[in-house]
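go over my protein:
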Amino acid sequence: MKNLNRIHLAGLRAVEATGRLGSLKAAAEELGVTAGAVSQQVQKTEAQLGVQLFERRNRLLVPTPRLLAMQPHLTSAMTSLATAIATTERGREDALTISVAPVFAGKWLVWHLKSFNKAHPGIRVRVEATVDLVDPDTSDVDLCIRVGRGPYPGLKSERLLSQRVFPVCSPALAEQFREPADIGKLPVIRDRGQVYSWRTWLDLFGLDEAILQDGPTFSDGSLCLDAAIAGQGVFLAWETLAVYAVQAGQVVAPFPQRPATGLSYWLISGRSAPGTKAKKAFGDWLKEELHRSIGRAEGADAMASRALES
């Protein structure tokens, strides 16, 4: 490894990030420096190696064949270094890194996390909001909160809460509802990424999806909720997304029925990662806070499941 002595690690990081992300700006954002600093590091590394890694074309950096040959090895090496550093964080009792979907983070977690901080002031929580699937065994993430059918092979997973859905709309539009079939009178706001259909709710009343009108479509559940708040139509929301908006009077749930989608919230951790008091404290708080915030008694899901099985 003596050939590494003449190359600065910061320069290799700049080259790897620029090659992987495709631009100086994106690399600068990831590395937490300016685009100019990244450009300087790239040029220094090219000089140290004695080869050209990028072609400059009208402010664009195009990888040369030499960089294309290097890139997989650079990325693998940086990933290994990040994993090595992450292992030093595991088992700490004063810090937790939580991976969670952006919609859940923005519409539920940020509104409730202060109660955890108050109960556990000695534990620092860092939230990574991402839709990417994270492997807690090979990253610096301690816990993941995900929605799915579970369980998750190769990982520790604890079921927290079943997902339930219900229509919401603005208070003004809610005045048009007298019975469930009145759903057909309003535009329907649709979430393009939604993994369940309106049938989940309509089947309770023997209604067909054909009664639903067209309406705006969005690629994000939080945008759908915002559209409902703005009075653009009725949206089939889930509890953790809409609970605050309902409590604040921003939207109204015209009907009390909240059928389960078959999906659940899960708390996931690495099978090889050590259990800590910090993880247990967060898991216990999360389960209790989820049930409390949506007005569901803890353990109700389990009792309902047993009732269905009997």
